[in-house]
Fold:
Amino acid sequence: MRTVARCLLSAEVRARLYSRYRRLTAWPPVGFVRFGTLRRGTPFSRQFGFDRGQPIDRYYIDDFLRRHAGAAGYASGVIRGRVLEIGEARYTGRFGRAADIERLDILDVSADNADATVIADLTDGSNLAPDSYDCVICTQTLIVLYDLHAAVRTLHRILKPGGTLLVTLPGISQICRPDMDIWGDYWRFTALSARRLFEEAFDPADITVESYGNVLSATAFLYGLAAQDLRPRELALHDPDYQVTIALKALKSKTSTAREPAR
Structure:
């Protein structure tokens, strides 16, 4: 009888009945999910949560840089010697130890930045001396540079042999304003795309890539909630399918040179 019944139903009807069955047996049932205050079409904040507390991506960036700054129990510090940071001394001042810093330079493309000691464009880099820095900190910067490949080659070139590059990149994120209107906002990344990009200039064995985030922190970040809106264990949960922040550490080999760009 069951075989006869299946033959009497068309494939379209069987598919429709199966879809209905799946909806009825899903948990929670379809249509009964309680969104609460999240049932809205606008975010709580369009400033990434800055107006509520610490943005969730900044929480992750802090964790990454703290672990590479010589804190007890983590890797030996690489924020040392001659250091270059992009835009401002946001992280060198917080995580670098003064005794380890020989000199700090701030790079900006605009001379309007009073804190900048180096005026240059990473995609050009012609006025940046090679083999100059023991550590370069480049956080959330590459998204506003259309020519990523040229920028990565510059970052490799200005590092001293044995120097370290610390980079963070956005994964799941809203559009950055006013950057979109001023410079452009071009890219979002995954751990894989970040690795492939930097392997064009650095030895693959000298690159470490990690991601931060999970479905809850990604959702909260898109809504403009702050790190203070979540519990530490909720922020710490790692799900590689929901990459909010990509963090990359690359070493410049003492014998390597940047690879030639593909033609």
About this structure: The CA atoms of residues 217 and 234 lie 7 Å apart. The chain has a mean pLDDT of 90.
